[in-house]
Amino acid sequence: MKPAPLPRIVITGVGLTSPNGRTLPEFRQNLLNGVAGIERIEIRYMGQQLAGVCHYDPLKYQKKKEVRVGTRAGSISIYCAREALADSGVAFEAMPKDRIGIYIGCTEHGNVETENEIYNISKFNYDTKYWSHYHNPRTVANNPAGEASLNLGTTGPAYTIGAACAAGNLGLIHATQMLRLGEVDFALCGGVSESIHTFGIFAGFKSQNALATHDDPAKASRPFDLARNGIVISEGGCLYTLERLDDALARGAKIYGEIGGYHVNSDATDYVLPNPQRQSECVRAALRRGGFEPRDIHIVNTHATATPLGDIQECEAIRAVFGEGCPDTHINNTKSYIGHAMGAAGALELAGNLPSFDDLTVHPTINVDQLDPQCALPGLVLNQPRKVAKVDTILNNSFGMLGINSTLIVKRFVP
Question: How far apart are CA 367 and CA 384, in angstroms?
Fold first, then answer.
């Protein structure tokens, strides 16, 4: 007997905040217009540094005390979750709250609060009586999802997924799995990052010679460019509402796209340096799961972070899969606009491409003044948007430290 087909899972809402947009329409327009969102901010012990900062209103969905007691990652999660619910049009108040799952990818959590507390007690000769009694709930790994659950009043599963910079994709992948298993009936999922509020991540990348520098902040993040010199660290968030197709159709929901395939694997070779063979294996496995050939993919959004070796390694992996026989495959990058939003990166980058299903336009990689020959790829879209004949599939790559790789495919919804 053939097994029953897996339930189809669809995206019905998007809520985000990014360095160059607080809504999907604003974010998308800035991607098409080449508007970056990088600025200089003061980092403790390090002075002025380049960063991607989100300028959303945390008081739109929280009281001042809630913002003060909570974390930046929690606040971003609440904002994105509420925006996604509003966008989905779901009758949220009437939903059984124990059947709603919250799955949020996060690169790291707790560093900000611990650094701040140590700095604060340093002013009092390190007397721990001045240590905040909110520190523990602020720093537990499940904090971003937990704060969202508290704000929304949901009683189903709510937890974060630690997957380095692959975490945004993992949020959607995990939600898809839970919906198909029947563990929940509705999911809020994606990724968030508060990275710019910890000096440690800036110092760490600087010690690796992987922190971007440039006189013009808007041009600092430059994947594939011959003069690229490192990562621009950013904060941000993007959460989606995911549902089983039958449920979405029953309530007349608008549908952004359908989950078409995914895969997660590990390099098992290095703490930091990516492994192009494992990356290409991850992409091929996602294609197989979805029943796609490489030529069926119309947009490949790259993970490329603008580190000299990392970009070359990823291009090698993409070339191995899409290098020949894929005339309709177009390749772009979103970090050139917003920097690297860590745990939020994959979720934001997918969102920036979803409108291509409707406008048949591929947003470019910007800031490529001289393409690195080792990053030259067929179908690479540089500096200007490209109008195309067809966009039925988007493949989103997100890779992270300690060798975690994720590939997510979203396809045009066809009833």
Answer: 10
